[in-house]
Each structure stands twice: as structure tokens, then as C-alpha cells.
Amino acid sequence: MTREKSKIRRQKGLIIVYTGEGKGKTTAAIGLAMRTAGWEKKIAIIQFIKGFKETGEWKLIKNIDQIDIYQTIESETAFIGKPEKKHEGGCKKAVLILRELITSGKHDVLILDEINNAIFYDLVEVGEIIKILKKRSAGQTVVFTGRNAAQEIIEIADLVTEMKKIKHPYDKGIQAKRGIDY
Amino acid sequence: MTREKSKIRRQKGLIIVYTGEGKGKTTAAIGLAMRTAGWEKKIAIIQFIKGFKETGEWKLIKNIDQIDIYQTIESETAFIGKPEKKHEGGCKKAVLILRELITSGKHDVLILDEINNAIFYDLVEVGEIIKILKKRSAGQTVVFTGRNAAQEIIEIADLVTEMKKIKHPYDKGIQAKRGIDY
Fold first, then answer.
1. Residues facing residue A19 across a β-bridge
2. Residue numbers in B near A15 (CB within 8 A)
């Protein structure tokens, strides 16, 4: 390990939160994963709530060696309104995976996609997540995405961006577009 | 061309703006490029102002066939405060490339990285960009990134997200991190 590399490893990893009503949260997390992959580091993406594989990110990422991606439920769309039983089970599994990955320490960046909403809907216990994060190794960065980020997470975060909706194509009746929205 | 594919091509492409002081604008644009690439479409990224290649995105993207990336200046960092002569020349070249790519019509998504700032600092003329965009073929989506998005661009946009800074690691004295910030 070169001196420069060891210096980077010793830096404490960040806690990053992308939240808000605007578009670009998961998109930014994917961009960050790609940027990290460009430096030959390892990334894990755990998708909470989401269960669809017909997305551009899923298709691309499964061909990139440095990125591991996990889904724990089968679902065509995210839930609208109230979560269902399957989301509860899926989130339990997702937390188990997170715990395992943190213990293994092999990823430089862990992306917890839509976990903010999972916490908001009581599918995931925020205290449990914070406890797991405390065990992460130096240099491990963790990214939280989704609307309604918990105050407890914002408090421990180093970087928080609120994606604020100024204009949204759905407002004009334009539907979600393949390759843009998914 | 299948019927489904031809339907997608006929949809008008979006104009997307990621602006604001918060982190995640270029990151979201890279994520969008990756998502688009996952659907086997073609993307062009033109970097206005930026001239550095020692970034994760540059390293990764040059190995992805569907994404073409262009830089028009040599520079280690973005300018701070006032732009220099080289930024002026670089932006002129970037606009020429944009015009050529729009005419060729071969990209599904064009990302104009940091163009908002280039317009803000009078390095690029907003009226000229709008004129070029009018010639884009159906289905071509164009993404504008950078702080200080022009009102004229926001008006013609379909999707505008302001990345609002809630917390920023630089405020705590944490420096830019390889694989996270670049």
C-alpha cells in the first residue's frame, strides 16, 4: 500500500444524505457509485422498498464488477401511500444485509437507497441503523437516499443535500421516461 | 425498429436542470448518464469550465462505449472567483461541439456540465444555447448542471431540481475526497 493510499484509508468515511421532494436523489447516489468505481473501489447498493429490476441502473450495474447491488423484495413499483407486508419483510432482510456488509468491511461506499422512507414508515428502526453505522471501518462512506430523512440521521451526517423540486415533468402530465427516471 | 422503440423516439426529450449550492448536481447527471447507458442508448457529456481528467467519472466513462465525454480546456481545478482567458476559449469550443452533436442527432442524452456557471459568467450566450436546443431531434434530452441557472433556461425546462445545501463537509474542514467528490 502506498503512503498516499494508506492516508486515504485512514480518513473517516462520510455519512451523506440526499433527501427532499425533487428528482435526483437516487440518480446522484448512482453517480457517486460510478465515480467511486472509476477509482477501482468497491461499492454496495442496498435497495430498500424498491423491487424492480427493469431499470437502467440495474442493467448497467450488474455488469460492473466493483458494484454489488441487492434487492430484497419482488415488486414492480414502489408503494404508494402505505407500505405492504412484503415491504416490512424486505426491509428486515435489507438491514441484515447491511449488518453483514458493514461487518465484512469490504466496501468503500455503501448506498442505502430509499432507506429514509423506510425509516419514515417505521419499516426500519433508526436507532438500529445508527448502531450498525458505528461499527463501520474507517474510510467507509454511507449514503442515505429518499424523501423524509430522519432528524437523527441528519444530525450524524457530514453532507446533506435537499433536492428541492422547482419544476417536475409529472406536473405537466409527462410520464416517467425509460433511461431518465429509471 | 420495433413499435415500442419508435414510440420512445417520438416522445419529446426533456430539458433537465440541476442547480443550487448543494452537492450532487454533476453527480446526478453522471447517474442519469449511467441509467441511460443501461438501456443501450447514447450519451454525450460536454464539460464546460472543468478541465481535469483525474476524476472517477472520467476514468470510468472512457471505458463505456455508449458515453462520449468532451473537455475543451486543460486545467487542474475549476476557476475560483473570476474566469480566465482559457475558460473563454474553452467555452467557445464547447458550444461548437454542442452544435455539432445536436446536428448529428446521434445522442439520446446530452449533458452540459457546469454550463449554468458558464452562462452566469458570460462565457456562453444563453440565447445562442436556446437557439441550438430548438434544433434538437425529438427524444433528445438535454441536462444543464451548475450553480446559478439562468432564468431563461429554467423557463424552458421540464424538470428543475435545486440541490439545496443543508450540511456540507467543507464547512467542518473536511477536504474533497477522491471517489466521492471527484
1. A162
2. none
For the segment A73-91, what is each residue's pLDDT rounded down to a tens digit? Answer: 887 666 667 788 888 999 9
For residues B44 and B98, give the distance between their C-alpha atoms in angstroms, rounded to a whole number: 9
Strand partners, A110: A44, A142
Integer Cα distance of A78 and A87 in angstroms:
9
Q: How many CB atoms lie within 10 A of CB A113?
A: 28
The C-alpha cell at A91 is: 426491509
Closest-CA residue of A relative to B34 is A57
Q: Which residue from A36, A103, A95, A35 is spatially nearest to A70, judged by alpha carbons?
A: A95
- Residue B65 burial (10 A CB sphere; 0-12, 13-18, 19+): exposed
Question: How many CB atoms lie under 10 A from the CB of residue A103?
Answer: 12
How many A/B residue pairs have CB atoms within 8 Å?
A: 184
Nearest to B34 by CA among B74, B9, B69, B3: B69
Q: In this predicted complex, what is the ipTM?
A: 0.86
Task: Judge whether A178 is closer than 8 Å to chain B, CB to CB.
Answer: yes
The 10s digit of each residue's pLDDT in A3-50 is 444 444 445 789 999 999 999 999 999 999 999 999 999 999 999 998
Q: Is B10 on the interface with A (CB under 8 A)?
A: no
